[in-house]
Specification:
With 561 residues, this protein is mainly α. 52% of the residues lie in helices and 6% in strands.
């Protein structure tokens, strides 16, 4: 889709993760497709002229109450009051505010759902949401309160109340939190807007908060898998690993596409390495226990036994990273469908010369919830295998003569990086606690009207946390592996690492120096490297040196300046 600031046109059928990220994260301008605009106008004209009378048949959310009040008729002159009250009553959110990018994604997804012309919402509502996105007016929406059925009612109601400019609603605008009406006035927009028949029910039905969290988390997980492949390559170089296990002949004997793709990506990053060879493994490192310093950099005499094969965290990496790639392909299929679907209730269908109003259950979030359970599971395991490689790097019993804790000098006076590895383990443990299934945790709500709920909003919000923890775990592996490479470089300079590995190593060192003297204030190093992982700077450096990590596949856009 070009640079992140390109215009994104919403038509209800073609939104993808890159377009959503451009809107949510990079403030790309957005507009409604002209075809969608004309269809919305025609549908709404029919609703206003034919369906908003006291003699109209009962239609859920048009002229009836909601939930257990579904059979209570709302008179035509009370519809606007009912719709406004519905927004107030549903705004039962609690907790800290959602991240700005999640709320922006939620607004864009709601507009895209309306663009499919199944909701019957007024065009004024769509234009108001578009204006908020384009002017950077972001509602303050409480994080918690949705069960993921009948829609994400609480977060969407809080979004809608801010859109309306209700007196108690708040937004963030130009870095300041303020009453919504004040922000609209400052942006040169009408301070308030009302909701009429079907507007409120269309706005708050649908698991759009769940989907916003889910789409961002899945996108970030796919980016992270590339970074984890690079951190794996750096660990393999640091440990002078045996690479025969990544041979394509081996992969073809077990034809899982993700596993094979990971092995191919790894071979690309490591292309040209002499570090992961038997001659390099024969070289003695100066940090080896009891070694005469004059022998550092010389071959073992007599030669040590060939490596043959490595521990599982190295040798079986494609078999663990690969399922993540395959799961992401499945998850992205689910989310792409959700992003381009109508999810409120009831829906409006063209029928002959008129329209039919049909109640359904597309607001139920089970697809998202189950996909997010899978995302949490595979990302947790990805982080776990990265952490096991980190543990090997700091353990002299497993690191092939690297110094314990990767201490450069004065062991005892300096403690090294073992604490960094331990922090990664803490995050993996947290993820293990978070990845238990949310989609099968169901309690009835609203007087048993909602007798099966999806828990999708928690599932997606939890998965975002799992991905963020895993980003740090991958950064930790990179930090430790590059430290190990620096410590061994004097003895192994005759055995260069692969071109992609070299580019990653240099990208890390451009922002985080090696710990070669006294112990460093490591929290800042971890955060600096985590930002590189999240921003994709390391993967872009590797791809410039050794080609695409995933040919003909996903690309992470550069962060705009």
């Amino acid at each position: 889709m070009g640079t992140p600031r390109d215009l994104v046109v919403l038509d209800g059928g073609d939104l993808d993760s890159h377009g959503l990220i451009a809107i949510a994260r990079f403030n790309a301008p957005v507009q409604l497709a002209a075809t969608s605009r004309s269809l919305l106008q025609a549908t709404r004209h029919y609703i206003d002229s034919r369906l908003l009378t006291d003699s109209a048949p009962l239609m859920y959310g048009f002229n009836t109450g909601v939930g257990a009040l579904k059979s209570v008729r709302i008179d035509a002159d009370q519809v606007v009051e009912f719709q406004t009250n519905l927004i107030r009553a549903a705004s039962a959110g609690t907790g800290e505010p959602m991240p700005v990018e999640v709320v922006r994604a939620m607004m864009a997804l709601r507009v895209n759902a309306f663009a499919s012309n199944y909701s019957g919402v007024r065009l004024e509502i769509v234009d108001r949401l578009l204006a908020m996105l384009n002017h950077g007016i972001t509602p303050l929406v409480a994080t918690k309160g949705s069960v993921g059925a009948s829609g994400d009612l609480a977060p969407l109601a809080m979004m809608s109340g801010a859109m309306m400019g209700l007196p108690r609603s708040k937004v963030e605008y130009k870095g300041q939190v303020m009453p919504a009406a004040d922000a609209f006035r400052a942006a040169g927009l009408p301070s308030t807007i009302d909701v009429q028949a079907k507007d409120a029910t269309a706005l708050i039905n649908g698991t759009t908060a769940s989907l916003a969290y889910a789409a961002l988390a899945a996108y970030d997980a796919r980016c992270l898998l590339g970074e984890a492949t690079i951190s794996l390559a750096l660990s393999l170089e640091a440990l002078r690993a045996e690479l025969s296990c990544f041979d394509d002949r081996v992969m073809l004997a077990r034809l899982h596409p993700g596993q094979r793709a990971v092995a191919a990506s790894l071979r690309g990053v490591l292309h040209g390495t002499q570090r992961c060879t038997e001659p390099a493994r024969q070289v003695r490192l100066r940090s080896a226990a009891g070694l005469d310093a004059t022998l550092a950099g010389t071959p073992h005499a007599p030669p040590i036994a060939p490596r043959i094969q490595d521990a599982y965290s190295l040798r079986c990496a494609p078999q663990v990273h690969g399922p993540v790639l395959d799961a992401l392909d499945y998850i992205d299929t689910i989310l792409a469908t959700e992003m381009n679907s109508a999810t409120d209730n009831p829906l409006i269908f063209r029928e002959g010369d008129g329209y039919a109003v049909v109640s359904g259950g597309h607001f139920h979030g089970q697809y998202i919830a189950q996909a997010m359970d899978l995302l949490a599971l595979v990302v947790t395991d990805l982080a776990a295998i990265c952490d096991r490689r980190s543990a090997r790097l700091v353990d002299p019993a497993c690191s092939f003569d690297l110094p314990g804790g990767l201490i450069a000098e004065r062991a005892g006076v300096n403690t090294g990086l073992a604490g960094v590895q331990s922090m990664g383990t803490a995050l993996v443990l947290e993820n293990m606690g978070l990845c238990s299934p949310a989609s099968v945790t169901s309690l009835p709500a609203k007087g048993n009207t909602e007798d099966h709920i999806s828990n999708s909003c928690f599932a997606a919000r939890r998965s975002r946390t799992v991905v963020q923890n895993a980003q740090t775990v991958v950064a930790v592996e990179m930090l430790l592996a590059t430290q190990a490479l620096d410590l061994a470089e004097r003895d192994l300079a005759a055995f260069p690492v692969g071109a992609g590995s070299r580019a990653a190593w240099q990208a890390v060192r451009a922002h985080v120096p090696a710990s070669l003297g006294s112990d460093r204030w490591v929290c800042e190093d971890i955060e600096a490297l985590r930002e590189l992982v999240v921003g994709g700077e390391i993967s872009r450096a590797v791809e410039a040196a050794s080609g695409p990590l995933w040919p003909n596949a996903f690309k992470q856009p550069a962060v705009p300046g």
